Amino acid sequence: MGIKEIRVGVSSCGLAAGARVVLDKLKLKASVPVNESGCIGHCYVEPLIEVVTDTGSLFYGSVTDSDADIENILSLNSEKQITLNGRRTSRITDKIGKFVPGDIDAFIELGGFKALDLAAKMERSAIIEEVKLSELKGRGGGGFPTGLKWSFFAAHDGKKILVCNADEGDPGAFMDRSLMESLPCQLIEGMLIAAYATKAETIFIYCRAEYPLAIKNLQTAIKKINEKKLNIVNGQQIDISIKEGAGAFVCGEETALIHSLEGKRGMPRFRPPFPTDKGYDDYPTMINNVETFANIPFIIEYGADEYKSVGTPGGRGTKLFAIAGDVPRPGLIEVPMGITLKEIIYDIGGAEEGSVKAVQTGGPSGGCIPEGYFDTPVDYDSLRKLGAIMGSGGLIVIGKQRCMVETSRYFLDFTHRESCGKCTFCRVGTKRMFDVLTSITKGTGTLHDLEFLKNMGKKVQDGSLCGLGKTAPNPVLSSLRYFEDEFIEHVSHNRCRTLECSSLVDIVTDHEKCTSCGRCVKTCPAGCISDSFVADNSICTRCNSCIEVCRDNAISRAFKGEGFYSNSGEEVKNDNQ
Asked: What per-residue string of b and e applies to 154-170 under the rule 16 or more CB within 10 Å gives b?
Protein backbone atom coordinates (compact mmCIF):
# COMPACT_ATOMS: atom_id res chain seq x y z
CA MET A 1 0.00 0.00 0.00
CA GLY A 2 1.75 3.16 -1.23
CA ILE A 3 1.22 6.76 -0.18
CA LYS A 4 -0.02 9.09 -2.93
CA GLU A 5 -0.57 12.32 -0.99
CA ILE A 6 -0.60 13.68 2.56
CA ARG A 7 -3.12 16.34 3.59
CA VAL A 8 -2.80 18.48 6.72
CA GLY A 9 -5.79 20.47 7.97
CA VAL A 10 -4.70 24.08 8.46
CA SER A 11 -7.92 25.86 9.34
CA SER A 12 -8.02 27.86 12.57
CA CYS A 13 -8.65 24.79 14.74
CA GLY A 14 -5.73 22.90 13.21
CA LEU A 15 -3.36 25.86 13.39
CA ALA A 16 -4.28 26.44 17.04
CA ALA A 17 -3.36 22.81 17.77
CA GLY A 18 0.04 23.09 16.04
CA ALA A 19 -0.69 21.92 12.49
CA ARG A 20 1.76 24.35 10.89
CA VAL A 21 4.88 22.79 12.45
CA VAL A 22 3.58 19.31 11.58
CA LEU A 23 3.03 20.41 7.98
CA ASP A 24 6.55 21.85 7.74
CA LYS A 25 8.11 18.69 9.20
CA LEU A 26 6.19 16.42 6.84
CA LYS A 27 7.27 18.50 3.85
CA LEU A 28 10.90 17.99 4.87
CA LYS A 29 10.59 14.26 5.46
CA ALA A 30 8.03 13.01 2.91
CA SER A 31 8.81 11.99 -0.65
CA VAL A 32 5.18 12.51 -1.74
CA PRO A 33 3.14 15.73 -2.08
CA VAL A 34 2.20 17.25 1.28
CA ASN A 35 -0.67 19.72 0.90
CA GLU A 36 -2.74 22.00 3.05
CA SER A 37 -6.44 21.24 3.37
CA GLY A 38 -9.51 22.64 5.09
CA CYS A 39 -11.18 21.52 8.30
CA ILE A 40 -13.29 18.37 7.90
CA GLY A 41 -14.96 18.93 11.25
CA HIS A 42 -13.12 16.63 13.66
CA CYS A 43 -11.72 19.46 15.75
CA TYR A 44 -11.27 17.21 18.79
CA VAL A 45 -8.31 15.35 17.18
CA GLU A 46 -6.43 18.25 15.61
CA PRO A 47 -3.86 18.36 14.15
CA LEU A 48 -5.55 15.87 11.82
CA ILE A 49 -3.59 14.26 8.99
CA GLU A 50 -5.11 12.43 6.03
CA VAL A 51 -2.83 9.98 4.24
CA VAL A 52 -4.16 9.15 0.76
CA THR A 53 -3.03 5.68 -0.32
CA ASP A 54 -3.64 3.43 -3.30
CA THR A 55 -6.54 1.80 -1.49
CA GLY A 56 -8.10 4.74 0.33
CA SER A 57 -7.39 7.21 3.11
CA LEU A 58 -5.93 6.72 6.57
CA PHE A 59 -6.30 9.35 9.30
CA TYR A 60 -3.92 10.28 12.11
CA GLY A 61 -5.14 12.45 14.95
CA SER A 62 -3.57 14.64 17.67
CA VAL A 63 -0.24 14.48 15.84
CA THR A 64 2.87 16.39 16.93
CA ASP A 65 6.01 17.23 14.98
CA SER A 66 8.01 14.64 16.94
CA ASP A 67 10.19 12.27 14.91
CA ALA A 68 8.15 9.33 16.22
CA ASP A 69 4.82 10.76 15.04
CA ILE A 70 6.20 11.76 11.65
CA GLU A 71 7.73 8.31 11.16
CA ASN A 72 4.48 6.59 12.14
CA ILE A 73 2.64 8.55 9.44
CA LEU A 74 5.20 7.96 6.70
CA SER A 75 5.49 4.25 7.48
CA LEU A 76 1.71 3.87 7.91
CA ASN A 77 2.06 2.51 11.44
CA SER A 78 -1.11 2.26 13.49
CA GLU A 79 0.22 4.54 16.25
CA LYS A 80 -2.16 7.58 16.45
CA GLN A 81 -4.17 6.17 13.54
CA ILE A 82 -7.85 6.86 14.17
CA THR A 83 -11.24 5.94 12.79
CA LEU A 84 -13.49 8.91 12.17
CA ASN A 85 -17.13 8.57 13.04
CA GLY A 86 -19.65 9.75 10.46
CA ARG A 87 -20.03 13.47 11.10
CA ARG A 88 -21.37 14.93 7.88
CA THR A 89 -23.32 14.14 4.79
CA SER A 90 -22.06 14.78 1.27
CA ARG A 91 -23.81 18.02 0.54
CA ILE A 92 -22.37 21.50 0.96
CA THR A 93 -19.22 20.33 2.79
CA ASP A 94 -18.46 17.50 0.39
CA LYS A 95 -15.36 19.15 -1.09
CA ILE A 96 -13.79 20.18 2.23
CA GLY A 97 -10.43 18.56 2.86
CA LYS A 98 -9.89 17.42 -0.72
CA PHE A 99 -7.87 20.38 -1.96
CA VAL A 100 -5.93 23.46 -0.91
CA PRO A 101 -8.63 26.07 -0.13
CA GLY A 102 -7.08 28.73 -2.37
CA ASP A 103 -6.50 26.44 -5.37
CA ILE A 104 -9.29 27.41 -7.75
CA ASP A 105 -8.16 24.94 -10.42
CA ALA A 106 -8.43 22.04 -7.97
CA PHE A 107 -11.87 23.29 -6.95
CA ILE A 108 -12.97 23.32 -10.60
CA GLU A 109 -11.63 19.79 -11.09
CA LEU A 110 -13.85 18.67 -8.21
CA GLY A 111 -16.91 20.15 -9.94
CA GLY A 112 -16.69 23.70 -8.69
CA PHE A 113 -18.43 26.41 -10.74
CA LYS A 114 -20.45 23.81 -12.63
CA ALA A 115 -23.57 25.25 -11.02
CA LEU A 116 -22.58 28.76 -12.15
CA ASP A 117 -22.22 27.51 -15.73
CA LEU A 118 -25.66 25.90 -15.52
CA ALA A 119 -27.18 29.08 -14.03
CA ALA A 120 -25.75 31.17 -16.87
CA LYS A 121 -27.79 29.08 -19.31
CA MET A 122 -31.03 29.51 -17.34
CA GLU A 123 -33.53 32.31 -17.30
CA ARG A 124 -32.97 34.48 -14.23
CA SER A 125 -36.56 33.90 -13.12
CA ALA A 126 -36.03 30.14 -13.45
CA ILE A 127 -33.09 30.28 -11.04
CA ILE A 128 -35.20 32.11 -8.47
CA GLU A 129 -38.06 29.67 -8.98
CA GLU A 130 -35.72 26.71 -8.40
CA VAL A 131 -34.56 28.25 -5.13
CA LYS A 132 -38.20 28.79 -4.15
CA LEU A 133 -39.06 25.17 -4.95
CA SER A 134 -36.14 23.95 -2.85
CA GLU A 135 -37.80 25.55 0.22
CA LEU A 136 -34.38 26.65 1.43
CA LYS A 137 -34.74 28.83 4.52
CA GLY A 138 -32.15 31.39 5.54
CA ARG A 139 -29.47 29.73 7.63
CA GLY A 140 -28.60 32.87 9.58
CA GLY A 141 -31.25 32.21 12.22
CA GLY A 142 -34.40 33.91 10.96
CA GLY A 143 -35.42 31.05 8.68
CA PHE A 144 -37.06 33.30 6.08
CA PRO A 145 -37.69 31.56 2.72
CA THR A 146 -34.65 32.37 0.57
CA GLY A 147 -36.36 32.22 -2.81
CA LEU A 148 -39.09 34.59 -1.65
CA LYS A 149 -36.50 37.14 -0.52
CA TRP A 150 -34.74 36.81 -3.88
CA SER A 151 -38.00 37.49 -5.73
CA PHE A 152 -38.65 40.68 -3.72
CA PHE A 153 -35.13 41.88 -4.49
CA ALA A 154 -35.23 40.93 -8.18
CA ALA A 155 -38.40 42.96 -8.72
CA HIS A 156 -36.43 46.21 -8.42
CA ASP A 157 -34.65 47.88 -11.32
CA GLY A 158 -31.44 49.87 -11.29
CA LYS A 159 -28.46 49.54 -8.97
CA LYS A 160 -28.78 46.79 -6.38
CA ILE A 161 -26.48 45.54 -3.62
CA LEU A 162 -25.98 41.92 -2.57
CA VAL A 163 -24.48 41.30 0.87
CA CYS A 164 -23.11 38.15 2.47
CA ASN A 165 -23.56 38.29 6.23
CA ALA A 166 -20.39 36.67 7.58
CA ASP A 167 -20.59 38.42 10.95
CA GLU A 168 -20.73 35.19 12.93
CA GLY A 169 -20.94 36.45 16.50
CA ASP A 170 -22.35 33.57 18.57
CA PRO A 171 -19.88 32.29 21.19
CA GLY A 172 -19.03 28.70 20.31
CA ALA A 173 -20.23 28.97 16.70
CA PHE A 174 -17.80 28.48 13.81
CA MET A 175 -19.86 27.16 10.88
CA ASP A 176 -19.41 30.22 8.68
CA ARG A 177 -15.74 30.56 9.58
CA SER A 178 -15.08 26.96 8.55
CA LEU A 179 -16.87 27.45 5.22
CA MET A 180 -14.98 30.64 4.44
CA GLU A 181 -11.63 29.12 5.40
CA SER A 182 -12.15 25.81 3.62
CA LEU A 183 -14.61 26.52 0.77
CA PRO A 184 -14.26 30.21 -0.16
CA CYS A 185 -14.84 29.50 -3.87
CA GLN A 186 -18.11 27.66 -3.19
CA LEU A 187 -19.40 30.54 -1.11
CA ILE A 188 -18.55 33.02 -3.87
CA GLU A 189 -20.08 30.73 -6.50
CA GLY A 190 -23.37 30.85 -4.60
CA MET A 191 -23.18 34.63 -4.39
CA LEU A 192 -22.42 34.98 -8.10
CA ILE A 193 -25.47 32.85 -8.93
CA ALA A 194 -27.62 35.01 -6.64
CA ALA A 195 -26.25 38.23 -8.12
CA TYR A 196 -26.85 37.05 -11.69
CA ALA A 197 -30.37 35.83 -10.90
CA THR A 198 -31.36 39.14 -9.28
CA LYS A 199 -29.32 41.49 -11.53
CA ALA A 200 -27.14 42.74 -8.68
CA GLU A 201 -23.74 43.97 -9.86
CA THR A 202 -22.14 44.67 -6.47
CA ILE A 203 -21.38 42.14 -3.73
CA PHE A 204 -20.13 42.92 -0.23
CA ILE A 205 -18.90 40.20 2.11
CA TYR A 206 -19.29 41.57 5.64
CA CYS A 207 -16.86 39.51 7.73
CA ARG A 208 -15.70 40.17 11.27
CA ALA A 209 -12.02 41.13 11.50
CA GLU A 210 -11.45 38.37 14.09
CA TYR A 211 -11.46 35.89 11.18
CA PRO A 212 -8.11 36.73 9.55
CA LEU A 213 -7.63 33.33 7.86
CA ALA A 214 -11.15 33.40 6.42
CA ILE A 215 -10.54 36.91 5.05
CA LYS A 216 -7.18 35.87 3.59
CA ASN A 217 -8.67 32.84 1.82
CA LEU A 218 -11.61 34.87 0.53
CA GLN A 219 -9.26 37.53 -0.84
CA THR A 220 -7.23 34.84 -2.62
CA ALA A 221 -10.39 33.30 -4.08
CA ILE A 222 -11.74 36.67 -5.25
CA LYS A 223 -8.47 37.52 -6.97
CA LYS A 224 -8.32 34.21 -8.85
CA ILE A 225 -12.01 34.36 -9.78
CA ASN A 226 -11.49 37.83 -11.23
CA GLU A 227 -8.40 36.65 -13.12
CA LYS A 228 -10.41 33.83 -14.71
CA LYS A 229 -13.28 36.28 -15.36
CA LEU A 230 -15.71 33.98 -13.57
CA ASN A 231 -17.24 37.12 -12.09
CA ILE A 232 -18.60 37.97 -15.54
CA VAL A 233 -21.79 35.98 -16.08
CA ASN A 234 -23.46 36.34 -19.48
CA GLY A 235 -21.86 39.74 -19.91
CA GLN A 236 -22.88 40.91 -16.42
CA GLN A 237 -19.79 41.93 -14.45
CA ILE A 238 -20.14 41.43 -10.71
CA ASP A 239 -17.78 43.29 -8.38
CA ILE A 240 -16.91 41.55 -5.09
CA SER A 241 -15.28 43.19 -2.07
CA ILE A 242 -14.81 42.42 1.62
CA LYS A 243 -15.83 44.71 4.46
CA GLU A 244 -14.25 43.90 7.82
CA GLY A 245 -16.53 44.41 10.81
CA ALA A 246 -15.34 45.32 14.30
CA GLY A 247 -17.03 42.38 16.01
CA ALA A 248 -20.26 43.86 17.36
CA PHE A 249 -22.80 41.07 17.88
CA VAL A 250 -25.69 43.35 16.91
CA CYS A 251 -24.19 43.82 13.43
CA GLY A 252 -25.42 40.34 12.60
CA GLU A 253 -28.86 42.00 12.37
CA GLU A 254 -29.28 43.08 8.77
CA THR A 255 -30.20 46.74 9.25
CA ALA A 256 -27.37 47.23 11.78
CA LEU A 257 -25.03 45.51 9.32
CA ILE A 258 -26.05 47.94 6.60
CA HIS A 259 -25.36 50.92 8.86
CA SER A 260 -21.90 49.50 9.57
CA LEU A 261 -21.28 49.02 5.83
CA GLU A 262 -22.13 52.68 5.34
CA GLY A 263 -19.52 53.68 7.93
CA LYS A 264 -22.07 54.44 10.65
CA ARG A 265 -22.52 52.97 14.11
CA GLY A 266 -24.11 49.54 13.81
CA MET A 267 -27.62 50.04 15.15
CA PRO A 268 -30.87 48.46 13.91
CA ARG A 269 -33.69 50.55 12.48
CA PHE A 270 -37.40 50.08 12.14
CA ARG A 271 -38.77 48.11 9.19
CA PRO A 272 -40.41 48.83 6.73
CA PRO A 273 -38.80 49.84 4.53
CA PHE A 274 -37.16 46.45 4.30
CA PRO A 275 -33.58 46.26 3.00
CA THR A 276 -34.72 44.61 -0.24
CA ASP A 277 -36.59 47.87 -0.93
CA LYS A 278 -34.21 50.39 0.63
CA GLY A 279 -30.89 49.39 2.14
CA TYR A 280 -27.24 50.28 1.59
CA ASP A 281 -27.03 53.95 0.50
CA ASP A 282 -30.80 53.69 -0.08
CA TYR A 283 -30.33 51.12 -2.86
CA PRO A 284 -32.28 47.83 -2.76
CA THR A 285 -30.11 45.44 -0.72
CA MET A 286 -30.41 41.69 -0.18
CA ILE A 287 -28.61 39.93 2.66
CA ASN A 288 -28.10 36.19 3.07
CA ASN A 289 -25.65 34.48 5.37
CA VAL A 290 -22.65 32.33 4.44
CA GLU A 291 -24.30 28.93 4.78
CA THR A 292 -27.34 30.04 2.78
CA PHE A 293 -25.17 31.02 -0.18
CA ALA A 294 -23.13 27.81 0.16
CA ASN A 295 -26.33 25.78 -0.42
CA ILE A 296 -27.11 27.46 -3.74
CA PRO A 297 -24.64 25.54 -6.01
CA PHE A 298 -26.11 22.20 -4.88
CA ILE A 299 -29.67 23.36 -5.60
CA ILE A 300 -28.81 24.60 -9.09
CA GLU A 301 -26.68 21.57 -10.01
CA TYR A 302 -28.94 18.83 -8.66
CA GLY A 303 -32.35 20.50 -8.59
CA ALA A 304 -34.90 21.42 -5.96
CA ASP A 305 -36.40 17.93 -5.73
CA GLU A 306 -33.05 16.36 -4.91
CA TYR A 307 -32.39 19.09 -2.37
CA LYS A 308 -35.74 18.44 -0.68
CA SER A 309 -35.13 14.69 -0.56
CA VAL A 310 -33.34 15.35 2.73
CA GLY A 311 -34.94 17.07 5.69
CA THR A 312 -38.47 17.69 6.93
CA PRO A 313 -41.35 20.00 5.97
CA GLY A 314 -40.15 22.24 8.81
CA GLY A 315 -36.63 22.38 7.41
CA ARG A 316 -35.37 21.13 4.06
CA GLY A 317 -31.84 20.04 3.22
CA THR A 318 -28.96 19.74 5.65
CA LYS A 319 -27.71 22.00 8.42
CA LEU A 320 -24.25 22.78 9.73
CA PHE A 321 -23.81 22.71 13.50
CA ALA A 322 -20.85 23.65 15.64
CA ILE A 323 -20.88 21.30 18.63
CA ALA A 324 -19.16 22.66 21.73
CA GLY A 325 -19.37 22.37 25.50
CA ASP A 326 -19.38 19.22 27.63
CA VAL A 327 -18.94 16.71 24.85
CA PRO A 328 -15.96 14.45 23.99
CA ARG A 329 -16.05 15.10 20.23
CA PRO A 330 -16.65 18.80 19.57
CA GLY A 331 -16.42 20.09 16.05
CA LEU A 332 -18.31 20.88 12.88
CA ILE A 333 -20.99 18.59 11.47
CA GLU A 334 -23.38 18.63 8.54
CA VAL A 335 -26.52 16.63 9.26
CA PRO A 336 -29.94 16.24 7.64
CA MET A 337 -32.69 18.43 9.02
CA GLY A 338 -34.90 16.26 11.17
CA ILE A 339 -32.08 14.43 12.93
CA THR A 340 -32.75 14.24 16.66
CA LEU A 341 -30.79 16.06 19.34
CA LYS A 342 -30.08 12.66 20.85
CA GLU A 343 -28.30 11.51 17.71
CA ILE A 344 -26.21 14.66 17.55
CA ILE A 345 -25.21 14.68 21.21
CA TYR A 346 -24.64 10.98 21.84
CA ASP A 347 -23.94 9.31 18.49
CA ILE A 348 -21.94 12.11 16.90
CA GLY A 349 -20.74 14.12 19.88
CA GLY A 350 -19.85 11.02 21.85
CA ALA A 351 -21.42 12.05 25.16
CA GLU A 352 -22.34 9.26 27.56
CA GLU A 353 -26.02 8.59 28.16
CA GLY A 354 -27.08 10.38 31.33
CA SER A 355 -24.10 12.77 31.38
CA VAL A 356 -25.93 15.68 29.75
CA LYS A 357 -28.40 17.95 31.50
CA ALA A 358 -29.41 20.14 28.56
CA VAL A 359 -28.39 21.48 25.18
CA GLN A 360 -28.60 25.07 24.08
CA THR A 361 -29.39 25.67 20.43
CA GLY A 362 -29.23 29.03 18.71
CA GLY A 363 -26.25 30.61 20.43
CA PRO A 364 -26.42 33.01 23.40
CA SER A 365 -29.99 33.93 22.44
CA GLY A 366 -31.11 30.33 22.15
CA GLY A 367 -33.04 28.15 24.54
CA CYS A 368 -31.87 25.42 26.88
CA ILE A 369 -33.58 22.11 26.06
CA PRO A 370 -33.54 19.40 28.79
CA GLU A 371 -32.54 15.78 28.27
CA GLY A 372 -36.15 14.64 28.31
CA TYR A 373 -36.71 16.33 24.93
CA PHE A 374 -33.62 15.01 23.13
CA ASP A 375 -35.83 12.90 20.84
CA THR A 376 -37.03 16.15 19.26
CA PRO A 377 -36.22 16.42 15.54
CA VAL A 378 -34.02 19.39 14.73
CA ASP A 379 -35.87 21.82 12.48
CA TYR A 380 -37.17 25.37 12.80
CA ASP A 381 -40.70 24.55 13.96
CA SER A 382 -39.85 21.79 16.46
CA LEU A 383 -37.22 23.84 18.30
CA ARG A 384 -39.46 26.90 18.43
CA LYS A 385 -42.16 24.88 20.20
CA LEU A 386 -39.69 24.06 22.97
CA GLY A 387 -38.82 27.72 23.55
CA ALA A 388 -35.56 27.48 21.62
CA ILE A 389 -34.44 28.55 18.15
CA MET A 390 -32.34 27.10 15.36
CA GLY A 391 -30.18 30.19 15.18
CA SER A 392 -27.19 30.00 12.89
CA GLY A 393 -26.18 26.58 14.16
CA GLY A 394 -24.35 26.91 17.48
CA LEU A 395 -25.04 23.95 19.74
CA ILE A 396 -23.70 24.02 23.32
CA VAL A 397 -23.89 20.78 25.33
CA ILE A 398 -24.45 21.39 29.06
CA GLY A 399 -23.27 18.58 31.34
CA LYS A 400 -24.86 17.44 34.60
CA GLN A 401 -22.11 19.26 36.53
CA ARG A 402 -23.33 22.66 35.29
CA CYS A 403 -25.64 25.00 37.19
CA MET A 404 -28.51 26.27 35.05
CA VAL A 405 -28.74 29.53 37.02
CA GLU A 406 -25.08 30.29 36.35
CA THR A 407 -25.48 29.15 32.73
CA SER A 408 -28.36 31.60 32.25
CA ARG A 409 -26.34 34.37 33.90
CA TYR A 410 -23.34 33.60 31.67
CA PHE A 411 -25.29 33.95 28.43
CA LEU A 412 -27.19 37.03 29.55
CA ASP A 413 -23.87 38.62 30.52
CA PHE A 414 -22.92 38.39 26.85
CA THR A 415 -26.18 39.64 25.36
CA HIS A 416 -26.69 42.56 27.74
CA ARG A 417 -23.19 43.85 26.99
CA GLU A 418 -23.75 43.47 23.24
CA SER A 419 -26.94 45.53 23.26
CA CYS A 420 -26.54 48.61 21.07
CA GLY A 421 -28.62 50.58 23.59
CA LYS A 422 -31.28 51.84 21.21
CA CYS A 423 -34.23 50.12 22.90
CA THR A 424 -34.99 50.76 26.57
CA PHE A 425 -36.22 47.21 27.18
CA CYS A 426 -33.11 45.69 25.64
CA ARG A 427 -30.66 48.18 27.16
CA VAL A 428 -32.13 48.32 30.66
CA GLY A 429 -34.21 45.15 30.84
CA THR A 430 -31.39 42.73 30.00
CA LYS A 431 -29.10 44.52 32.48
CA ARG A 432 -31.71 44.24 35.23
CA MET A 433 -32.20 40.55 34.46
CA PHE A 434 -28.44 40.02 34.56
CA ASP A 435 -28.18 41.81 37.93
CA VAL A 436 -30.97 39.67 39.39
CA LEU A 437 -29.36 36.47 38.14
CA THR A 438 -26.06 37.58 39.65
CA SER A 439 -27.71 38.14 43.03
CA ILE A 440 -29.31 34.69 42.85
CA THR A 441 -25.94 33.03 42.21
CA LYS A 442 -24.56 34.94 45.21
CA GLY A 443 -27.31 33.68 47.50
CA THR A 444 -29.11 37.00 47.92
CA GLY A 445 -32.04 36.33 45.60
CA THR A 446 -35.70 35.85 46.55
CA LEU A 447 -38.66 33.97 45.17
CA HIS A 448 -39.99 37.31 43.94
CA ASP A 449 -36.92 37.54 41.68
CA LEU A 450 -38.08 34.48 39.74
CA GLU A 451 -41.37 36.15 38.88
CA PHE A 452 -39.49 39.31 37.97
CA LEU A 453 -37.30 37.37 35.51
CA LYS A 454 -40.34 35.83 33.84
CA ASN A 455 -42.19 39.15 33.55
CA MET A 456 -39.21 41.20 32.47
CA GLY A 457 -38.13 38.53 29.98
CA LYS A 458 -41.50 38.70 28.26
CA LYS A 459 -41.38 42.51 28.16
CA VAL A 460 -37.89 42.51 26.66
CA GLN A 461 -39.07 40.08 23.98
CA ASP A 462 -42.11 42.18 23.14
CA GLY A 463 -40.54 45.63 23.45
CA SER A 464 -37.24 45.20 21.64
CA LEU A 465 -36.72 46.33 18.07
CA CYS A 466 -34.34 43.70 16.66
CA GLY A 467 -33.65 40.01 17.04
CA LEU A 468 -30.93 40.53 19.65
CA GLY A 469 -33.34 41.94 22.21
CA LYS A 470 -36.26 39.75 21.22
CA THR A 471 -34.26 36.57 21.80
CA ALA A 472 -31.90 37.69 24.60
CA PRO A 473 -34.18 36.39 27.42
CA ASN A 474 -34.47 32.91 25.83
CA PRO A 475 -31.76 31.19 27.94
CA VAL A 476 -33.33 32.50 31.14
CA LEU A 477 -36.96 31.80 30.26
CA SER A 478 -36.26 28.31 28.93
CA SER A 479 -34.14 27.47 32.00
CA LEU A 480 -36.92 28.69 34.28
CA ARG A 481 -39.38 26.62 32.27
CA TYR A 482 -37.47 23.37 32.58
CA PHE A 483 -35.14 23.84 35.58
CA GLU A 484 -37.09 26.05 37.97
CA ASP A 485 -36.24 23.72 40.85
CA GLU A 486 -32.59 24.76 40.62
CA PHE A 487 -33.56 28.44 40.83
CA ILE A 488 -35.79 27.74 43.84
CA GLU A 489 -32.94 25.90 45.62
CA HIS A 490 -30.73 28.96 45.16
CA VAL A 491 -33.21 31.48 46.55
CA SER A 492 -34.92 29.34 49.21
CA HIS A 493 -31.99 27.28 50.52
CA ASN A 494 -28.91 29.22 49.37
CA ARG A 495 -27.70 26.02 47.77
CA CYS A 496 -26.24 25.28 44.34
CA ARG A 497 -26.62 21.55 43.74
CA THR A 498 -23.71 21.47 41.30
CA LEU A 499 -21.37 23.47 43.59
CA GLU A 500 -20.67 25.82 40.69
CA CYS A 501 -21.84 29.11 42.22
CA SER A 502 -18.78 30.19 44.21
CA SER A 503 -20.63 32.33 46.75
CA LEU A 504 -22.65 29.32 47.87
CA VAL A 505 -19.77 26.90 48.46
CA ASP A 506 -16.80 26.42 50.78
CA ILE A 507 -13.40 24.95 49.97
CA VAL A 508 -12.88 22.02 52.32
CA THR A 509 -10.09 19.56 53.11
CA ASP A 510 -10.40 15.85 53.80
CA HIS A 511 -7.48 15.25 56.16
CA GLU A 512 -7.78 11.49 55.82
CA LYS A 513 -6.60 11.92 52.23
CA CYS A 514 -4.27 14.88 52.76
CA THR A 515 -0.54 13.99 52.80
CA SER A 516 0.61 17.49 53.78
CA CYS A 517 2.59 17.96 50.59
CA GLY A 518 2.05 21.73 50.68
CA ARG A 519 1.30 22.19 47.00
CA CYS A 520 -1.97 23.94 47.82
CA VAL A 521 -0.23 26.46 50.10
CA LYS A 522 2.35 27.33 47.41
CA THR A 523 -0.29 27.66 44.68
CA CYS A 524 -3.00 29.67 46.47
CA PRO A 525 -2.97 33.22 45.01
CA ALA A 526 -4.96 34.60 47.96
CA GLY A 527 -2.71 33.12 50.67
CA CYS A 528 -5.75 31.74 52.44
CA ILE A 529 -4.55 28.19 53.19
CA SER A 530 -3.12 27.69 56.69
CA ASP A 531 -0.25 25.48 57.79
CA SER A 532 -2.86 22.84 58.63
CA PHE A 533 -3.96 22.95 54.99
CA VAL A 534 -7.39 24.43 55.68
CA ALA A 535 -8.76 27.22 53.52
CA ASP A 536 -9.97 30.43 55.14
CA ASN A 537 -13.23 30.77 53.22
CA SER A 538 -13.72 34.37 54.35
CA ILE A 539 -10.93 35.45 51.98
CA CYS A 540 -10.84 32.51 49.55
CA THR A 541 -11.70 33.50 45.96
CA ARG A 542 -12.82 29.95 45.01
CA CYS A 543 -10.41 29.96 42.06
CA ASN A 544 -9.98 26.16 42.40
CA SER A 545 -6.18 26.38 42.10
CA CYS A 546 -5.71 24.26 45.23
CA ILE A 547 -8.14 21.64 43.94
CA GLU A 548 -6.34 21.44 40.61
CA VAL A 549 -2.87 20.92 42.12
CA CYS A 550 -3.88 18.50 44.88
CA ARG A 551 -2.51 15.08 43.89
CA ASP A 552 -4.44 13.35 46.68
CA ASN A 553 -7.90 14.66 45.74
CA ALA A 554 -8.13 15.89 49.34
CA ILE A 555 -9.48 19.36 48.57
CA SER A 556 -12.93 19.94 47.12
CA ARG A 557 -15.93 22.20 47.02
CA ALA A 558 -18.76 21.55 49.47
CA PHE A 559 -22.09 23.09 50.40
CA LYS A 560 -21.44 26.17 52.47
CA GLY A 561 -20.95 25.39 56.17
CA GLU A 562 -20.73 21.61 55.82
CA GLY A 563 -17.15 21.31 57.08
CA PHE A 564 -14.29 18.87 56.51
CA TYR A 565 -12.83 15.74 58.07
CA SER A 566 -9.88 15.69 60.48
CA ASN A 567 -7.21 13.01 60.61
CA SER A 568 -9.12 11.30 63.41
CA GLY A 569 -12.20 11.01 61.26
CA GLU A 570 -14.17 13.40 63.44
CA GLU A 571 -16.29 15.79 61.43
CA VAL A 572 -15.28 19.36 62.14
CA LYS A 573 -17.64 22.14 61.12
CA ASN A 574 -16.25 24.88 58.93
CA ASP A 575 -16.89 27.62 61.50
CA ASN A 576 -13.17 28.28 62.01
CA GLN A 577 -12.96 29.96 58.63
From this structure: bebeeebbbbbbbbbbb
